[in-house]
């Protein structure tokens, strides 16, 4: 049984070559920046990986039929999204997948549109393929959430150079879980403009309360024909190091072009650990995932309470999904970079400045709260204590 104690138990990651914990600037600092969790993965995944280790041979591997069955079964069962084995391509991660799709579906000089602020790797994936970033700024609604400026999006999508629109569903860093009406409206706009939708859905399982993740490609058959989706269990099950992801499209021509790009980029081979971990996650991981989301909800409540009581002028954006809090620090009168540096130096906590996610992120910081509650409490006490000193 996976219970609260499972997630409350700290795991010492220092000295394990952890990118999050062992970078030089993180020594003695609580790292709340890189988007991985400080929880052990699901025991069923660990057991499956032990099975691979026990065989003692780590040669080249093929992807078996049961891998595809695990993926299609999971998304059909949990999210009502039905697609075929033939619709899938595998690769080493969602970022390589995004880069391969851009390479396949654009020419150098084309524009790739996205809603900003946006995940920082989108910018590099676009530019590394010789394309230009075309931003459509999200707007903050009266309820504090991000909303799409549809007039601005219409203008962006109808630019002659724009060929691909990147959707982040759920949204990183703003935490929006886009509803069906929003997705359908965006999908229709992209269809009318002749712009392909590239939907990154890596955070899809981490959704809170009454909010529900809706796969972009599930909303409408016409929209599905104009959508390429990137998925992976890596965020939900904390398995990023296993290097496995899928690209899904019902259009054979798109898959052939993307497959060529995956091979051109040499990200076409996956390892036996990634395969075994994914199959375990998607066939036996539901108990773990449900317990994880419940625990993260408790962490989110703690974070909101700390800011509400200690720094009520700093608004925590209402979070519908992900484990990444997006906090408005404009009342401090400092830039995002200055606030992040100050927290790092004075509080010994490393967080992300909002400008990592484009200039639209100025005035915000991002905090990863996916850690044992005792660690989170320590970090929040440090952060709120030092921020109170400058306000």
Give a quick account of the main beta sheet: strands, pairing sense, barrel closure: 7 strands, mixed
Q: How many distinct helices?
A: 14
Low-pLDDT segments = none
What is the overall shape? globular
Spell out the key features of this protein.
single chain, 391 residues, alpha/beta, seven-stranded mixed β-sheet, three-stranded antiparallel β-sheet, 14 strands, 42% helix, globular
Written overview of the protein:
- The chain has 391 residues and is α/β, with parallel strands linked by helices.
- The protein is 42% helix and 15% strand.
- It has helices spanning 4-8, 43-55, 65-79, 94-105, 120-128, 150-157, 180-193, 221-224, 234-237, 252-264, 272-284, 286-310, 336-347, 373-390; strands at residues 30-31, 88-91, 111-116, 132-137, 139-140, 146-147, 162-168, 196-200, 227-231, 245-248, 324-328, 349-350, 352-353, 364-368.
- A 7-stranded mixed beta sheet has the order 2-10-9-8-7-3-4, sandwiched between helices. Strands 11-14-13 form a 3-stranded antiparallel beta sheet, covered by helices on one side.
- A hairpin with a 5-residue loop joins β5 and β6.
- It starts with a helix and ends with a helix.
């Amino acid at each position: 049984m996976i219970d609260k104690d499972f997630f409350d138990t700290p795991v010492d990651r220092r000295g394990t070559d952890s990118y999050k914990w062992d970078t030089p600037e993180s020594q003695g600092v609580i790292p709340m920046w890189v988007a991985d969790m400080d929880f052990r993965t699901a025991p069923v995944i660990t057991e499956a990986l032990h099975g691979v280790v026990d065989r003692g041979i780590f040669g080249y591997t093929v992807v078996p039929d049961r891998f595809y069955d695990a993926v299609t079964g999971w998304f059909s069962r949990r999210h009502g999204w039905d697609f075929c084995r033939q619709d899938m391509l595998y690769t080493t991660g969602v970022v390589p997948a995004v880069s391969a799709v851009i390479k396949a579906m654009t020419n150098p000089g084309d524009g790739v549109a996205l809603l900003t602020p946006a995940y920082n790797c989108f910018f590099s994936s676009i530019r590394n393929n010789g394309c230009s970033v075309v931003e459509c700024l999200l707007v903050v609604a009266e309820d504090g959430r991000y909303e799409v400026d549809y007039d601005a999006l219409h203008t962006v999508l109808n630019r002659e150079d724009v060929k691909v629109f990147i959707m982040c569903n759920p949204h990183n860093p703003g935490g929006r879980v886009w509803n069906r009406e929003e997705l359908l409206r965006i999908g229709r706009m992209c269809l009318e403009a002749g712009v392909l939708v590239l939907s990154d859905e890596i955070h899809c399982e981490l959704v809170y309360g009454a909010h529900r993740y809706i796969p972009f490609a599930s909303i409408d058959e016409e929209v599905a024909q104009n959508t390429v989706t990137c998925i992976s269990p890596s965020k939900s099950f904390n398995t990023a190091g296993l290097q496995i992801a899928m690209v899904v499209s019902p259009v054979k021509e798109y898959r052939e072009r993307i497959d060529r790009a995956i091979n051109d980029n040499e990200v076409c081979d996956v390892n036996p650990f990634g395969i075994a971990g994914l199959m375990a996650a998607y066939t036996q991981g539901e108990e773990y995932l449900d317990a994880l989301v419940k625990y993260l909800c408790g962490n989110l409540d703690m974070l909101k309470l700390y800011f509400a009581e200690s720094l009520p002028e700093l608004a925590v954006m209402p979070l519908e999904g992900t484990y990444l809090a997006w906090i408005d620090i404009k009342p401090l009168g400092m830039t995002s970079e200055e606030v992040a540096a100050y927290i790092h130096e004075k509080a010994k906590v490393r967080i992300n400045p909002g400008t990592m996610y484009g200039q639209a992120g100025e005035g915000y910081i991002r905090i990863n709260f996916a850690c044992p509650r005792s660690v989170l409490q320590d970090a929040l006490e440090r952060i709120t204590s030092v921020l109170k000193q400058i306000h």
